[in-house]
Amino acid sequence: MENAYLPEYWRDLYVMLGTSSAALIGLLFIVTSLHLEKIMRHPGYRTRARNFLLHLIAILIQAAAILTPQSTVVLGAELLAINLCAMWLPISFTYKAFYSEKSARKQGGFSIFLGIFYPASYLLGIIGGASIINLMNWGMYLVTVACVILLVISIVNAWLMMVGVGLLEKTTKAN
Fold first, then answer.
1. What is the mean pLDDT of residues 133-150?
2. pLDDT, tens digit, 9 for 90 and up, residues 34-83
3. Neighbouring C-alpha atoms within 13 Å toward the C-beta of 100
4. Residue 29 and residue 12: Cα distance in Å, rounded?
5. Residue 140 and residue 13: Cα distance in Å, rounded?
6. Contact 117, 153 (CB under 8 A)
7. Confidence (pLDDT) at 111
8. Could you tell me if 153 and 18 are in contact, meaning their C-beta atoms sit under 8 angstroms apart?
9. From residue 112, how far is each of 5, 71, 109 by CA, in Å?
10. Which of 123, 3, 133 is nearest to 74 (CA)?
């Protein structure tokens, strides 16, 4: 296999990843609308919901780019740009949690797990995009691993948010 970006080989996987992220985006809108008042009152959950949405959008955009017929070099540049832009989100949130807004870390249930794995997955996507530009066979595998990690930790993030909102609701009723 001269070039690992053969769309017919990656199509089903990226249809699944794009569909999964789009479905989770829809569920996020439903859940947040059901608990909108609680989420808007709590800055940590508001931030978590926004970040969750943006990470899922990054997966969806990458899946769309991979499924779009185009040259390998253009695809690599798109994936590199998407992951570079998306890398800003977890880095800025981690910076705020540790340096500028330490109270946000306590309010939002900041997880060092998420603070490490989100940037690491985007870094894999950046390396994968750069390697695709250079026509290296393993680039698509790195991008795929990055998207799967993002999807899994986004699901973990959704679970943590759901459990947290439930706990917030219980403590509010107890008071």
1. 93
2. 878 887 887 777 877 888 899 999 999 999 999 999 999 999 999 999 99
3. 6
4. 26
5. 12
6. yes
7. 65
8. no
9. 34, 38, 10
10. 133
| Greatest distance between any 2 Cα atoms in the chain | 65
Q: Residue 19 corresponds to which tokens in the numbers above?
A: 């569909």
Distance between CA atoms of residues 47 and 45, nearest Å:
5
Check: CB of residue 109 under 8 Å from CB of residue 164.
Answer: yes
Highest mean pLDDT (candidates 99-108, 119-128, 131-140): 119-128
- Assess whether pLDDT exceeds 90 at residue 120: yes
Q: Which of 131, 148, 110 is nearest to 17 (CA)?
A: 148
Give the Cα separation of 66 and 68 in Å (integer): 6
Candidate from 10-19, 88-97, 112-121, 165-174 with smallest mean pLDDT: 165-174
End-to-end alpha carbon distance in the chain: 64
Joined together, the tokens standing for residue 104 give 């946000």
Entry pTM = 0.83
Residue type, 5: Y
- Between CA 15 and CA 23 the distance in angstroms is 12
At 6, is the secondary structure helix, strand, or coil? Answer: coil
- Chain centroid offset of residue 39 CA: 20
